[in-house]
Amino acid sequence: MMLYGLLLAASLSTADGFSLSQSCPPSFELVAGNQCKLVSRYDMYDSLQNKGVGGTQTALPERRDGFSPQQIDLGRYLFFDPLLSGNHQQACASCHQPARGFADGKALSSGANGQLGNRSAPSLWNVGFLKKLFWDGRSDTLEQQALIPMLAEHEMANTPAKLLADLQANNHYPALFRQAFNTDRIELPQVATALAAFQSSLVSLNSRYDHYAHGYHQALTEQEIKGMNVFRSFVARCAECHTPPLFTNQQIAVIGTPEPDGMPFDAGAGVKPGWEKLRGGFKVPTLRNIALTAPYMHSGRFATLGEATEFYSKGRGHAVPANEDLLLHWHIWEPKLTAEEVEQITAFLGSLTDQSLTPQTPKRLPSGLALPSELHTELPPNTATSGATE
């Protein structure tokens, strides 16, 4: 262990102005093997398995953690660095902005070269718990998810060869990768691991709702409690898909969401061989920090939470195109919520906001490039940092 410390100290001295954190992010504990393990009050509770939608005090599903502090912090730099895009104009953080709930506030995200995508950017909060990633559930791991947009022509438009050459030729990144992976050669799996490590640290479990769930009932207003009760009721049935504590059951659901005017029908998960029954299906998104991530649905079809809630209340399949015969999820029916109930649900969803563990945006980047312009209009200073120095 002493030798490890000496080697680490030696590597830190070579970073020439950049050094990676030796401490885990807040809410993570450093354990044997230089691993960061998440600590949550939800760990005290029982599993949801075979218990319907469960109560407020229900255990979290299995999570991705165990990365080193150095890997997490390297991933933080990479996440914000436009060096990862083909033209050095766009970073991961361009579409997943901390100030906007790690989404981008757009109905459809745009690529490094200005191309308009066909889906919105989902929030990255609590992605370390998710089993399927992307709106269509095409990815099973954070590592795979990290590389797909980076190498997609209509997104970050990079290639493996260019990405690795740019990182290897940089004045700082080789030393930082040495700190995180003890290697002199940067490889694509290491880039993916570092980004996965950082994303696994994006944990949001300290909202006012969580305070209520842990026993402090004064944390929610009367209106929000009414909204929670409607949300969990057999009439609205929101919680059957948006199941606490993550507020997603992680399934693919066909709900018949309409596309924005002028956009063709999106088959979603149904394009995958063997998943034809899921035509028009998309992953049930988390509702954590949902008040920050408008517009809503896979294509940003609804501008407000009220509009999105009203969609579910208007009746099973009411917006499905006439030429589409979709197998709608059985939970989608016709609750006929009142305007008051829609307002109550919307109020409750606002209680799920928590960005207390937002990581610190780097003041400068190892590449020497400027932060993407999208990040120049942030919310007030973060209340928590990663502990890194730069």
TrEMBL record:
Protein name, as recorded: C-type cytochrome
Ranges of residues in domain Cytochrome c: 70-167, 222-353
Gene3D superfamilies from the UniProt entry: Cytochrome c-like domain
Signal peptide: 1-15
Region listing for Disordered, in residue ranges: 355-390
Keyword Signal annotated: yes
Pfam families linked to this entry: CCP_MauG (PF03150)
Residue spans of biased composition, Polar residues class: 380-390
Keywords, ordered alphabetically: Heme, Iron, Metal-binding, Oxidoreductase, Signal
Source lineage: Bacteria, Pseudomonadati, Pseudomonadota, Gammaproteobacteria, Chromatiales
Localization, UniProt: Cell envelope
PANTHER family associated with the record: BLL6722 PROTEIN, CYTOCHROME C PEROXIDASE-RELATED
